[in-house]
Each structure stands twice: as structure tokens, then as C-alpha cells.
Design brief:
The chain is built from 10 helices and 6 strands; from the N terminus they run βαβαβαβαβαβααααα. Helices cover 52% and strands 14% of the residues. A 6-stranded parallel beta sheet has the order 2-1-3-4-5-6, sandwiched between helices.
Length: 210
């Protein structure tokens, strides 16, 4: 299955470079380019891509506002932040807006292609530096409503980067049941995205128990 991508970056040379990187993967197709967040939102509405590669700092509408609008209106479109900006505020804000991942522009081409495939499958993708910022933002374990044993299992697999379909297969559940568990987990943890839940799993030590 071809993964359809929109590239949003205010630098034309960056967009051209990304096209060249992604062209080597026959399963990835760039269907549109945007020079700012407003254009990205308009293209996403028109083209319904699988993934939007989103820069954070752009004119007219920044990547954070565009991400929030896209995720609100087009829940089947994942947003993967790809930026040169690293700091508490942009990382936390774009992840709160609903991005499934945060990568830096020094990522190599092969890694970027793998990250897009993973994002399209609903898997969290984070640069280590971004993960560190998110860890500090999350609540501590004594501030959340306790999870059930099944919810803990789902969270552990989510933290390993598994999609809902893969979690369903691992736990012999229906995919809709997994979606329900994930929704309850987000509510109990007081977070808004799978990414934040995955970071919580890391912080709480769940990922040390395979």
C-alpha cells in the first residue's frame, strides 16, 4: 500500500531535498507541498494524505496550530513533526496538538522513511532529545487513576511502538477493543496522545518488562 505524504516546510530547498529522500522508497508518494501551516491544512483537507511531515516554525500559521487543526478535522491523517527546533515548548506543544512523532532534520534518509512507515501505522516516533522533554512534562505515577491489568498490558505494547492492530494480535483481542482500551488509558493518564502515553510507559518502567 502506498503511503501518501504532504510536506509542510517554509523552505523550498528543504521540501525538494525531502522529495529526493522519499523518492527512493517505492511505497512512499509525496502528493503535495506546503510553504506554511495554512497551506498544509488546506492541502490536507483536499488530499487526505496518510502522513503530513510538518515543520514547527512557519509563517501565516505555525506547525503547532496546523497540527491541531489537521488532527481535529482529519483523524486518519497522522502528523510527524520534522524540524530543526528543539526545546521544551515546541516539543510539548506540537505533541499536545496531536502529532504522532517529533524528529529533527538531521535524521538520515533511511531512518526518515522508516519513521514515516511507522507513523502511518500509528506508531510513535520520537527523537531521543524530544523524548527527554516529554518525560519531564508527564505526571508522576501517583497522580493518575490506576490502570487495570489489561490496560497496563496495552500500554506496555503501545510504549514499544505497536499499532492498535499489532496490540490486538499480541493480546488476541479485537482491534476495536484495543481502541477502547487506549482511549481509557489516555483519559486515566490525563494525556492527549498515544505519544505521551508511550513516554509514560517508559517513565514508569513498563518497558523493562517484556
Amino acid at each position: 500500500m502506498t503511503i501518501r505524504i504532504v510536506i509542510a516546510d517554509d523552505h523550498k530547498v528543504v521540501r525538494q531535498g525531502l522529495r529526493l529522500f522519499l523518492h527512493v522508497d517505492p511505497e512512499l508518494a509525496v502528493v503535495g507541498e506546503a510553504g506554511n501551516g495554512a497551506e498544509a491544512l488546506a492541502l490536507a483537507r483536499e488530499l487526505r494524505p496518510d502522513v503530513v511531515l510538518m515543520d514547527v516554525l512557519m509563517p501565516v500559521m505555525d506547525g503547532i496550530a496546523a497540527t491541531e487543526a489537521i488532527r481535529r478535522e482529519l483523524p486518519d491523517t497522522e502528523v510527524l513533526a520534522l524540524t530543526s527546533v528543539l526545546g521544551d515548548s515546541p516539543v510539548i506543544e506540537v505533541m499536545r496538538a496531536g502529532a504522532i512523532g517529533y524528529l529533527l532534520k538531521d535524521v538520515d534518509g533511511d531512518e526518515l522513511c522508516r519513521a514515516i512507515h511507522a507513523a502511518a501505522a500509528g506508531k510513535v516516533q520520537l527523537a531521543p532529545e524530544a523524548a527527554a522533554f516529554l518525560l519531564r512534562e508527564l505526571r508522576t505515577t501517583d497522580q493518575v487513576e490506576p490502570l487495570t491489568a489489561r490496560e497496563t498490558e496495552v500500554l506496555r505494547l503501545l510504549g514499544q511502538g505497536q499499532s492498535n492492530r499489532e496490540i490486538a494480535r499480541s493480546l488476541h483481542l479485537k482491534e476495536e477493543t484495543v481502541k477502547t482500551h487506549v482511549s481509557k488509558i489516555l483519559s486515566k493518564l490525563g494525556v492527549r496522545s498515544r505519544t505521551q502515553a508511550a513516554i509514560y510507559a517508559l517513565r514508569s518502567g513498563l518497558l523493562t518488562h517484556k
